[in-house]
Amino acid sequence: MPASADSTVTPARAETGYGMIGLRQFRSELRLIFGRRRNLAMLVILIAVPIFIGIAVKVSTPRPGEGPPFVSELTNNGLFLAFTAMAVCLPVFLPLALAVVAGDAVAGEASAGTLRYLLSIPVSRTRLLVVKTLGVLAYLAAGILLITVCGLVAGFALFGTHGVTLLSGDTVSVGNGLARAAGVAAYVFVDLLGLAAIGLFFSTLTEVAVGAMSATVVSAIAFAVLDSVPQLGRFRDVLLTHNWLNFDELLRSSPNAGSLLRWSLLPLAYALVFFAAAWARITTADVSG
Amino acid sequence: MTELDSPVAPAEHPEAEDLAIRTRGLTRRFGPQTAVDAVDLTVPRGAVYGFLGPNGSGKTTTIRMLLGLMSPHAGTIDILGGRMPLAAQQVLPRVGALVEGPAFHLYLSGRDNLRRLDAWDASTDPSTRDRRISAALERVGLAAAAGKKFRRFSLGMKQRLGLAATLLRARDLLILDEPTNGLDPQGTREVRNLLRELAADGATVLVSSHLLAEIEQIATHVGIMSSGRLLKQGSLSEVLDETGLLVRVRTSQAPDAARILEGLGLTVTDLAPESVVVRLNGSAPEYVNEKLVRGGVPVRGLAVERPALEDFFVHLTGEGYDAGIS
Fold first, then answer.
1. Are the C-beta atoms of residues B98 and B175 closer than 8 Å to each other?
2. Beta strand residue intervals within B204-310, DSSP E
3. CA-to-CA distance for A89 and A247, rounded, in angstroms?
4. What is the pLDDT of residues A95-143, one digit of tens each?
5. How many angstroms from the chain centroid is the CA of residue B191?
6. From CA B291, how far away is CA B294, in angstroms rounded?
7. Which residue has the higher pLDDT, A147 or B268?
C-alpha cells in the first residue's frame, strides 16, 4: 500500500465496497444538482407560478371559461390553485426545467471533462447512467412536489379550506382533496418520465450540454405541435404529450383508474425506449471529454 | 529506427503480473489515421516511466485506452496483472490518473470537488474522507486555497487539485499526463519531489511529458512515441547508452573523418574545423577509431559522450518537435 495520504483503505474493503448500492453516489449527485444555482432558480420559478396565479385571481375574480384551466373553481376552494398551477407549468416550465437538468446530466460532465475522471475512478457506465437518471428523477419530483405544496399552501391561505367541489359538482372532504392532489402529482411525474429519458439520451450523444438541453425542449415542443394538428388523427394517440393534461380525470367524482393507467403507459414506453438507447450509447461510446 | 527495442528479450519476458502496465499490439485508428500503432508498452513495477513524444504522437490516446475510456481496435492491455477493460473494477481503484489536464466542476470548491470524487469511489471509507482529503491537499500544497470555487483557481492550482485527486487513496500505479503543465518552476520542483516520494513508497509512475529535462531527472525508464509508434523503450541508461552514445573525434582532418564515418553509416551531428561528433548508433568507439586510422585520418583524441535526452529525442523523432518544447 504505497503512496497514500491514508493507510486505512485496505484491499479487502476495496473489493467488498463495490458491491454496495450506489447510495453515496446518489447523495453526491443530489448535492451537485441541488447545489447549482441555475437549477434552484428554475425551482423558484415553479414555486412562483401558484403564488402569482393565486394573487392574480384574488385581486381580479375571473369569469368562468377564461384563463387557465380550473381558474373559475379557484375562488370556491384553495385546493384548485395546485391544479391550476400544475396545468400552467406542465406545458412549458416543468419540461424546460427537466430538459435542462436531464440534458446536462451526462453531457455536462463530458464537457467539463469530469466524465473521464468519474469513469476512471472507476464508476461503471451502467451505474453512472442509473445514478444520473435517479438524480434527474429526484429533481423532477422536487419540482412537482414544490408546485403542489406551494399551490396548496397558497391556495388555502388565499381562498380557505372549505369543502372541495369537484368538476362533477360533488363535494368531498379536504382529506379526499389532498389525496387527489397527490394523485395528480404522481400522474404528472409519470407523464414526464418519457421526456426525462429523451433528455438523458440526448445527453449521452453530445459533449455540448446546451445542445442536449435544447434538443430535449425542441422534442417536447415538436410533440405538442404535432398533437395540435387534428388531421393527424389516431397518430396523435402515440405522441408523448398527448395525455399530459388528462390529470383532470382525478378531479371527477369517480376517476377512471383504467384510463389513467392506459394514459400512463405511453410515457412509460417512451421512457423505456430512450433509457435503453441512452444505456446502449453510454456503455459503448469513447469518452473524449 | 522504428524497430521497438524491448528492455528484456522476449524469451525472458516477465509475466504480466510483474509489470505495472503491459500492452501488446495496442492499436487505435481515427478514420484513416492510425493514432496508436501496435504499441507494446512494458512498464515494470516500481518504475518511473517517462512517456515521451511530440504533441499528437499518440500518448494521450494510449493513456485513454489504458484507463478504459476508449476501446482499442487491436491489442491487449494488462494493468497491475489484470486484463483491461474486463478487470477495470478491480484494477482502477489502485490507479490514480491525471488525463489531459485536470477537470472539475467550476461551481464547486476544490475541497467539494474532491468530496464528490471520493463519494463516487466505492473502494474508500467515507468516515476517513475529510482526513484523507485534507492530507492530499496538504501534500500538493493546496490546503489554504481549497475552499475557493474551482472557477477561481489558477492553472497551477487546478493542476495541484488534479494531483490531489490521485492521492485520495493508496495507489499502486499513477498515470499522469503532463502533470507539471502550467506550474511555475517552484511548483514543478514540488511535483518532481512528490513523484520521487511516491515512487520511493513503491508506487509505479507513468508520466507523460514534453519537458524532457524533467523526465531525465526523475525517470528510471522511458518510452518514446512518434506518429503513433513506440520508437524506443527501456531503462533510461539503457536507452541512452546503447543507441544514443556520441563520440567526439578531435583531428586536424575533420572533413575527411566525417566522410569516412558517414560511410560507416554513422550520423554526423556536429562538424567543426578540428573536431567531428558522430552518433555511434550502436557501434563500438574502438571500431570508429580503427576505421579512422585505417582511412589515414590522424586521431588526436576520441571521447565518448552521453547525449542529453532531448538531443536523443530529436534524433529519434526527427523534426517537428517545436510545438512541444518549452
1. yes
2. 204-209, 221-226, 229-235, 246-250, 267-272, 275-279, 301-305
3. 13
4. 999 999 999 999 999 999 999 999 999 999 999 999 999 999 999 999 9
5. 15
6. 5
7. A147
Q: Between the CA of residue A168 and those of A62, A161, B248, B298, what are the distances in Å?
A: 20, 19, 104, 117
Distance from CA of B134 to the nearest CA of A (A): 9
Assess B264–A contact: CB distance below 8 Å, yes or no. Answer: no
The Cα B223–Cα B239 span in angstroms is 9
Tell me the three-class secondary structure of B137-179, residue by residue.
HHHCCCCCCCCCEHHHCCHHHHHHHHHHHHCCCCCCEEEEECC
What pairs with residue B77 in β-bridges? B23, B84
CA distance A185 to B273: 91
B contacts of A119 (beta carbons < 8 Å): 67-69
pTM of the model: 0.84
Q: Say which residue the cell 482529503 belongs to.
A: B133
Q: Which of A1, A5, A121 sits opposite B120 (nearest CB)?
A: A121
List pLDDT tens digits, range B218-231.
899 999 998 899 98
Which of B109, B120, B174 is the best substitution to test chain A (most A C-beta atoms within 10 A)?
Answer: B120
Residues A169-175 have a mean pLDDT of 83
Residue A8: per-residue pLDDT:
38
Phi then psi for residue A208, to 5 deg, are -100, 100
Strand partners, B19: B44
Predicted confidence band of residue A65 (pLDDT cuts 50, 70, 90):
low
pLDDT at A86 over 70: yes
Q: What percent of chain A has pLDDT over 90?
A: 70
Cα–Cα distances in angstroms (integers) from residue A217 to residues A91, A112, A212, B318, in the given order: 11, 22, 9, 52
Q: How far apart are CA A96 and CA A140, in angstroms?
A: 11
Looking at chain B from residue 166 to 205, which residues have their Cβ under 8 Å from any Cβ of chain A?
167-172, 174, 197-198, 201-203
Residue whose C-alpha cell is 402515440: A238
Residue type for position A135: G
